Input
Amino acid sequence: MLEETRLLVVSENEDVLSTVSQTLSGHGYALEIVMNPKLVVERLSHEPTVSVVIADAETPYLSGIDLYVEMAIEEIATPFVLIAGSQELSRSELNETGIFDVVLRPIDESALRTVISQAVKLSQEMKIT
Output
């Protein structure tokens, strides 16, 4: 049996958690939910088995963008997908940050599956090199 790809979902928003879970569960992904983004860097530092981080841009303790910055400072090279209420970053800004992609709310399930599939592929390539 193939091992499921581990995704870390960071959000306190029940709608985001529900949509992400319903969209990705059963497609070969094992989802781990973290509601407090301040715990993510420590979690990834101690157990780097996560292929992709999916983070809500709007969390009360630490924004998704700030979480990505903290991961970069700690040199955690895990593809990062941001879920945002609006296009907060232009494509050029997105490329400059290193964030893999942004999925806008309301979440398009097909688009989310496509982005995650691409991010997982990148994660696998990163582990090979």
Notes: The chain has one domain: 5-128. Strands lie at 5-10, 29-34, 52-56, 80-84, 101-104.
